[in-house]
């Protein structure tokens, strides 16, 4: 087969170790002065793309892509420090987002934009996280595959490529399931796929010299990324109530009846 041209979409999200807080207006999660980092599932995607190359699979190029505010280029530099060859940043003006949230693009809009990028970059394999930890939508990969008319394998825990055939192992309730398809293909990654490497200082310095292309939505023509959902209100979940102790099974049944659970 010809060399793989891998596109890895990545997203800038609130760091997984930070507890999200609702803003005062109750319109979105507070993002000001909050630590952000690359979406953990996208770290797995970058790592897997680099490992394919290390396993001597013929990889022609690994391109990291993101759409977001100016600060999102930081995660592209991280992706390049991990092994991506170059980055593409489509800058999204946060001021256009009525909810004051960094997640201005909905999954369908992102999928439509990615379709344009895939066609422009002539990618034949897209590896992306199964979901982003800010909205937990888990839709972009599937929508992209549908728009492209490509095969897809979701929630990958193992990826094997031989020629133009890709075998993806995924965990299911009853054990594991294997999906086999021909390139081109979309793969979404799950936590058991690999353990992402830390970007070493020498690689971080090298990443500063790798090309990072800055683009705008207008560069991709009439991509419809208009939001179709409106956030009415965002609130904190109610405090969890403490449990109660019962003496025996009869007491438990009586309590469940009292609570209307039986």
UniProtKB/TrEMBL annotation:
One of its GO terms (cellular component) is mitochondrial matrix. It comes from the Eukaryota. GO terms for molecular function: electron transfer activity. One of its GO terms (biological process) is fatty acid beta-oxidation using acyl-CoA dehydrogenase. Pfam families: ETF (PF01012). Its cofactor is FAD; AMP. Keywords: Electron transport, Mitochondrion, Transport. It is found in: Mitochondrion matrix. InterPro entries: ET-Flavoprotein_bsu_CS, ETF_a/b_N, ETF_b, ETF_beta_N, Rossmann-like_a/b/a_fold. Its main location: mitochondrion. Residues 26-223 form the Electron transfer flavoprotein alpha/beta-subunit N-terminal domain. CDD domains: ETF_beta. Binds 1 FAD per dimer. Binds 1 AMP per subunit. Heterodimer of an alpha and a beta subunit. PANTHER family: ELECTRON TRANSFER FLAVOPROTEIN BETA-SUBUNIT, ELECTRON TRANSFER FLAVOPROTEIN SUBUNIT BETA. Belongs to the ETF beta-subunit/FixA family. The electron transfer flavoprotein serves as a specific electron acceptor for several dehydrogenases, including five acyl-CoA dehydrogenases, glutaryl-CoA and sarcosine dehydrogenase. It transfers the electrons to the main mitochondrial respiratory chain via ETF-ubiquinone oxidoreductase (ETF dehydrogenase). This is Probable electron transfer flavoprotein subunit beta. It comes from Westerdykella ornata. The lineage of its organism: Eukaryota, Fungi, Dikarya, Ascomycota, Pezizomycotina.
């Amino acid at each position: 087969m010809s060399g793989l041209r891998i596109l890895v979409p990545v997203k800038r999200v609130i760091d997984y170790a930070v507890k999200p807080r609702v803003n005062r207006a109750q319109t979105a999660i507070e993002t000001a002065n909050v630590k952000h980092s690359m979406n953990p599932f996208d770290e797995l995607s970058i790592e897997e793309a680099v490992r394919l190359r290390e396993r001597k699979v013929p990889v022609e190029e690994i391109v990291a892509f993101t759409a977001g505010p100016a600060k999102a280029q930081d995660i592209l530099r991280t992706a390049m420090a991990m092994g991506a060859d170059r980055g593409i940043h489509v800058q999204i003006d946060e001021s256009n987002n009525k909810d004051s949230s960094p997640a201005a693009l909905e999954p369908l809009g992102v999928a439509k934009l990615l379709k344009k990028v895939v066609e422009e970059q002539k990618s034949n394999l897209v590896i992306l996280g199964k979901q982003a930890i800010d909205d937990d939508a888990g839709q972009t990969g599937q929508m992209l595959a549908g728009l492209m008319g490509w095969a897809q394998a979701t929630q990958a825990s193992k990826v094997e490529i031989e020629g133009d055939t890709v075998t993806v192992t995924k965990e299911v309730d009853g054990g594991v399931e294997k999906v086999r398809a021909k390139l081109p293909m979309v793969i979404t990654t799950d936590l058991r796929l690999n353990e992402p490497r830390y970007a070493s200082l020498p690689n971080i310095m090298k990443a500063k010299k790798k090309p990072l292309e800055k683009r705008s939505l207008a560069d991709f023509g009439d991509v419809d990324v208009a939001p179709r959902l409106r956030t009415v209100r965002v609130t904190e979940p109610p405090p969890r109530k403490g449990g109660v102790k019962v003496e025996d099974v009869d007491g438990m049944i009586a309590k469940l009846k009292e609570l209307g659970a039986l």
